[in-house]
């Protein structure tokens, strides 16, 4: 943000407070791809984080993220309380929302390390999130439709980002639909869990962050995403699997691991394509070009490899 946009944001925050409190400090505190996080300290000592969209990156919207964070907080999940949302983009050029600042240990955003005790607590808290009684707070999704709706969401995201169909993604979507199984339980899925996306204090998770991919769905999406993507540098897959079973009683079969690996790379390929459009319009940063081209293509290839190499049972499905 330039100085003028920062001034407009400060005035907006002061207006929302509806008292004599003013903004005394404002600075950017994170460099995420989909959102820019700004720290704001008020004259009474209250601290906020302003989470600003960056040109529709990943096909996600502040309103949905705000909605899920508020529901999760009301249910008792460890998440920062959200305060206000601005959806028009008229203040700083993009939609944003405001949440409370949460204190925790300071680590590098790309640090994937966890102590054994913190890993235990993280798995326990993620399982708690999946098991929360969301009914009455979020629009219902059935176990039969949950995974199909998620596939369709990411298929629409990629098709909205380009005027050309990508045959490998079309085939990937069809394969995922064909072999999707009904969820054993529909829960709040974080969508991007792992080190770097939570705040810790010592060996405890204080708050989950980065909720832009959250939705109702099959919790297996989170567990396998953690194994194969965000948590892949934290510990080997087998160690994660043993940890899930020991701490949360979660068993992931080889069939489920293969299917949800394909799903998560499909999701990543579709979401990453939006960065190419953002690079050419609202966000001409080098990382946008790299994510929208090289990383997108890497994920497309992984989807194709997983579809091609899926082990088969007597019915022709992945095991």
Q: What number is the mean pLDDT?
A: 93
- Count of the separate structural domains: 2
Distance between the termini: 49 Å
Strand elements, count: 9
Binned, the helix content reads 40-55%
CATH class of the largest domain: Alpha Beta
CATH arch. level architecture of the largest domain:
Alpha-Beta Complex
Helix vs. strand class: alpha+beta
Which fold does the CATH topology of the largest domain refer to? Aminoglycoside 3'-phosphotransferase, Chain: A, domain 2
Radius of gyration: 20 Å
What percent of residues are in strands?
Answer: 15-25%
Spatial strand order of the main sheet: 1-2-3-5-4
CATH H-level superfamily of the largest domain: Aminoglycoside phosphotransferase (APH), C-terminal lobe
Unreliable parts: none
Succession of helices and strands: HEEEHEEHHHEEEEHHHH
Approximate shape: globular
Number of helices: 9
Largest sheet: 5 strands, antiparallel
Descriptive account of the structure:
This protein is an alpha+beta fold. The protein folds into 2 domains: 3-100, Phosphorylase Kinase, domain 1 (2-Layer Sandwich), CATH 3.30.200.20; 117-309, Aminoglycoside phosphotransferase (APH), C-terminal lobe (Aminoglycoside 3'-phosphotransferase, Chain: A, domain 2, Alpha-Beta Complex), CATH 3.90.1200. The chain contains 9 helices and 9 strands. The chain has helices spanning 3-17, 62-74, 116-131, 146-161, 167-179, 220-230, 237-248, 254-280, 286-309, and strands spanning 23-30, 35-42, 47-53, 82-86, 96-100, 187-189, 198-201, 204-208, 215-217. The strands form 3 sheets. Strands 1-2-3-5-4 form a 5-stranded antiparallel β-sheet. Strands 6-9 form a two-stranded antiparallel ribbon. β1 (23-30) and β2 (35-42) form a beta hairpin. The longest helix has 27 residues, at 254-280. The mean pLDDT is 93.
